[in-house]
Amino acid sequence: FDECFEPRPAGREDETGGIAFGLAFHEVMERLDLVSGKNLRELCRIKAMEQFIPGMAEKIAGLCQRCLEHPLMERARRSRRIFREVPFSMFLDERIVEGKIDLLFEEEDRWVIVDYKTDDVFGEALEQRFLSYRQQGTWYAQAVQKVAEGKVKEVVFFFVRPGKVRFLKKEGRSIAT
Description:
By secondary structure, the protein is an alpha+beta fold. 40% of the residues lie in helices and 25% in strands. It contains 6 helices and 5 strands. It has a 5-stranded mixed sheet with strand order 1-2-3-4-5, sandwiched between helices. A hairpin with a 4-residue loop joins β4 and β5 (164-167). The chain is globular and about 45 Å long. The chain starts with 17 loop residues before the first helix and ends in a 10-residue tail after the last strand. The model is unreliable at 1-14 and 170-174 (pLDDT under 50).
């Protein structure tokens, strides 16, 4: 009977949850009912178990709930079209760049790209981390512009733990590294 259960990998659950926490959070946000959030608790329980961090299910749920209540998510809910976990692959500067866009929605005939960050950072550390993600945001924007043949309104890095957003591109300015 005990052979049916996989052993819990060492070091998967700490006070912040680390990588496993981030993966569970992203998987919940991919499948979560963004309007009602009615499937939140069950999804968090399942995804925490899958990532071998069952004790973090409530923390994941709290973070996802805060995310749902953020004004950025209200913009997404009002959008014409919305996509989650959008994979992309493109050739750029003689190399292949691949990734997944966490949330992509259309607003005013332009695309808003959202990248959730579960980093446990605040203040100056958050600003430094945002700067380290600029290239990633540029790649996302280039991928959307090529594939969707549409304009990107902005790339938003949503630091969900502190509830802060940082914009790579603001209205009227082009995205540049």
